Amino acid sequence: MSDFLLIAGKAYTSRLLVGTGKYKDFAETRAAVKASGAEIVTVAIRRTNIGQDPNQPSLLDALPPSEFTYLPNTAGCYSADDAVRTLRLARELLDGHDLVKLEVLGDQQTLFPNMPETLKAAETLVKEGFKVMVYCSDDPIQAKILEGIGCVAVMPLASLIGSGMGILNPWNLKLIIESARVPVFVDAGVGTASDAAIAMELGCDGVLMNTAIAGAQNPVLMAGAMKKAVEAGREAFLAGRMPKKLYSATPSSPTTGLIGK
User: Fold this and answer.
1) Partners of 105 in the β-ladder
2) What is the pLDDT of residues 205-216, one digit of tens each?
3) Which of 53, 130, 232, 237 lies 20 to 30 Å from 80, alpha-carbon distance?
4) What is the distance between the alpha carbons of residues 41 and 65, in angstroms, rounded to a whole number?
């Protein structure tokens, strides 16, 4: 069975998207990304060299755009104007690349999304022809507004960026998934493989993570674990889990036609 992830009309086989920050060097970055099986890699334009400084090592050498789809993001931006300016720069650096991840942060402590500024930036970027995947709160109404603006994917946080706390509000996430007509990704807060599996079992189209892999004691091993978790969670969702039955146990084996009776 073919089960492709479609984003802005393009098909991908992996539903795991990974960040490229916080690794000790670009060699470890490449090893972890390869182990994850990810086809889409997100890069913080303000923090990672992809040609801004020709005298420094470039991520483009470690992860060539011929092998991976780049998803430039606006990490570190706290206003719509800064975010739009950053992604315009990314489009220049990546020869007209238009698939981007928008995030406008509210403060430096929580890194929670500033939704009014996010909505403002999304409107501008969509009008300028960008294909916007957007980091947002787990508010179903805000997610629907972003979809209406024309974003190609909504990416509600599971919990705070870098917290590793997992999915704190699966009910809101489920509401977003059930009403969305664009892909829904959990973005931020994943800490370990079980968090990724739960997101996929809920019906998310994919998971984006960075710190959960880069911050592990063995990033490459964790990347492989996340790959398996996303795949297992997706298969479990497609299979359809058995119903939960409170105080109604059912034997796994038949109770009639027993051998010797």
Assistant:
1) 113
2) 999 999 999 999
3) 53
4) 10
Catalytic residue among 101, 120, 131, 227: 101
190 and 164 Cβ atoms separated by less than 8 Å: yes
- Please give the backbone phi and psi of residue 156, each rounded to the nearest 5 degrees, phi first: -70, 145
Helix axes 140-149, 170-179, angle to 10 degrees: 30
Residues forming a β-bridge with 7: 10
Backbone angles phi, psi at 106, to 5 degrees: -90, -35
101 part of the active site: yes
Estimate the share of the chain in helix, then strand, then coil, as percent rounded to the nearest 5.
Answer: 35, 15, 45
Is the pLDDT confidence value at 132 over 90? yes
Q: Which two tokens stand for residue 133?
A: 């995947």
- Beta-carbon contacts of 98 under 8 Å, excluding residues fewer than 6 positions away, are 91, 129, 130, 131
**Could you give the 3-state DSSP secondary structure of residue 7?**
strand
Residue 129, judged by CB atoms within 10 A of its CB (0-12, 13-18, 19+), counts as exposed
Distance in Å from the first CA to the final CA of the chain: 43
- C-alpha 61/C-alpha 19 separation (Å) is 16
The count of other CB atoms within 10 Å of the CB of residue 89 is: 15
